[in-house]
Design a protein that fits this description.
The protein has 332 residues and is of the alpha/beta class. The protein contains twelve helices and 15 strands.
Length: 332
């Protein structure tokens, strides 16, 4: 598990969430153990883990709804125990299954929500409501009763409610669960648009969505943080820098030339019908990008049909970490 090194106050200013050794025990159950979590400002962080891993406990601790047994959690640099009310004033939250008065419209729902946050001229409140409806793509349906909304529209309305008070942090619980592909797409597009306005910390079981929209990923398993890294680093693979190349023609000649380079540590060759696939492990990514294709194309009858750095599917990485009991160190 990666550990959090000491950081300067300037670095802390870039962190919206920062926990140190955060631990929570219920009777004899260790719900959360020594959590060192960092979420940077204006990032989208996917919070993953099997059921019972400690995700809900973490969120409750961050919001000061329960107290830790040991360790600390800072949100916006504020202590989650002593300053929880101030923290909650700056947070927007979407439950997994948001509920509404279905006879109301989306606009009426946001007017009701606005009463908890705003006072002053109705014109300014209505302007904020209109801006929020446009942000989540509900302007055209703003005055329809919610009972006619699709699942995706209901989730987008929930995000609108959570976003209405200009929060500095959005916590979303399974925002795209139980939605069809179009509904999921719409919710993910809203999350991407919100990136410039706030920080998003969300739990989900849909790993494909995490890979699409997240900057960083944190994975809990049995109450412990077993991975915390930028998404690109996490899916790059545990085997170092590996390039995949598919060649038609004589793959063995290309293999010999590539293997002779000082920055190449291994070349595995796999026959694929009329082509050959080479898995090339390297120590120098710049050299690989500049030279691998040239080395393969020395033979005039050779054609490269596919080339690129090998990446792993997030589901593969997730299952390997959780089921294999492995930990991923992000270098902190």
């Amino acid at each position: 598990m990666s550990t959090v090194s000491s950081v300067t106050s300037a670095a802390d200013n870039s962190l919206v969430i920062h926990t140190r050794g955060l631990t929570k025990t219920y009777k004899d159950v260790n719900a959360l153990q020594n959590l060192n979590l960092q979420v940077r400002r204006n990032s989208i962080c996917g919070f993953l883990g099997p059921n019972g891993a400690g995700k809900s406990t973490t969120i409750k601790l961050l919001l000061g709804l329960i107290r830790p047994m040991s360790g600390s959690a800072n949100v916006f640099g504020l202590d989650s125990v002593r300053e929880s009310i101030t923290i909650r004033q700056r947070v927007g939250y979407l439950a997994q299954d948001p509920r509404y008065y279905d006879h109301n419209t989306a606009r009426e729902t946001l007017r009701f929500t606005a009463r908890f946050f705003f006072s002053g001229p109705n014109q300014l409140i209505e302007k904020r409501i209109a801006e929020t409806l446009e942000l989540v793509g509900l302007s055209d349906n703003a005055d329809r009763p919610i009972k006619g909304f699709s699942g995706g529209e209901r989730q987008r309305l929930g995000i609108a409610q959570a976003q209405l008070n200009y929060p500095d942090l959005l916590i979303l619980d399974e925002p795209a669960a139980s939605l069809d592909p179009m509904g999921r797409r719409d919710v993910l597009e809203v999350m991407e648009r919100l990136r410039k306005h706030t920080t998003i910390f969300y739990s989900t079981h849909i790993l494909e969505d995490v890979q699409r929209v997240s900057d960083t990923v944190a994975i809990l398993n049995k109450g412990q943080l077993v991975a915390q890294a930028p998404i690109e680093e996490l899916i790059a693979g545990k085997d170092g820098i590996v390039y995949s190349m598919t060649v038609t023609g004589d793959g063995k000649c290309a293999q010999a030339r590539i293997a002779a380079q000082p920055w190449v540590t291994a070349v595995a060759l796999h026959a694929q019908d009329a082509a050959t696939n080479l898995q090339i492990r390297v120590t120098d990514e710049k050299a690989a990008q500049a030279q691998l294709l040239r080395l393969a194309l020395v033979d005039e009858d050779a054609t490269v049909t596919a080339f690129g750095r090998k990446k792993y599917n997030l589901e593969e990485v997730f299952l390997g970490i959780v089921e294999g009991g492995k930990e991923h160190d992000n270098g902190n």
